[in-house]
Structures are given as C-alpha cells and as structure tokens.
Amino acid sequence: MDVEELESLPAKELHDRAVHYAVRHGDLGFLWDLLKVIPAAEAASGNTDETANDLSRVSALLSDAMAAGEGELGDALRPVYVDYLSRHPDA
Question: What is the per-residue pLDDT for 25?
C-alpha cells in the first residue's frame, strides 16, 4: 500500500497492521519507538494523567502499545503507523 492508501485506513487498522508486522518480524526498534511516543500522544489526546503513569511504568507502555489503535490515541498515533507501514509495504 502507498502512503495515500494507508492514510485512508482507520487508526485501529493501522495500529493492528503495524504492531502485528513488527511482532512477526521481531522489529523491537519500531515497538520501542512506539512506546516512546505514546506518552506524547496521550498528552496530545488530552489524557495527561495517563502520560505521567506511562512515563513511570514500562508495563503500562507495553500494554498501551498493544491497544494503541483505539480512539483519540489511535488517531494521534496515525502518522507513526503510516510511516512504518509505508516503509514495509508487505505488512
């Protein structure tokens, strides 16, 4: 899929494709990058309380990464998923 096609997908589908591809291919770099941007995406989506928790607990970040395709958080992370999936067209 090209970037334009990826941009048309819902955030949940982008999340699922990117995370599943990264897990299947052992792409810990992407998963780590995702974990690093989740606190900022939480803040951008208005969840400032969650931001403080995420910064202090790795387990919360791992949980967030697996579910970060839903709602406002998923929408805030769309650029991350589109960028990753555009670099891995077989995802």
Answer: 95
pLDDT band, very low/low/confident/very high, at 49 (cuts 50, 70, 90): confident
Give the separation between CA 9 and CA 80, rounded to whole angstroms. Answer: 13
Alpha-carbon span 56 to 15, nearest angstrom: 23
Q: Is the pLDDT of residue 30 over 70?
A: yes
What DSSP letter does each residue of 17-84 carry, written as one string?
HHHHHHHHTT-HHHHHHHHHHHHHHHHHTT-HHHHHHHHH-HHHHHHHHHHTTSHHHHHHTHHHHHHH
Would you give the end-to-end CA distance of the chain in angstroms?
9
* Residue-number span of the structural domain to which 59 is assigned: 3-87
Q: Is the pTM of this model over 0.70?
A: no
For residue 88, what is the DSSP state?
A: -
Number of domains forming the structure of the chain: 1
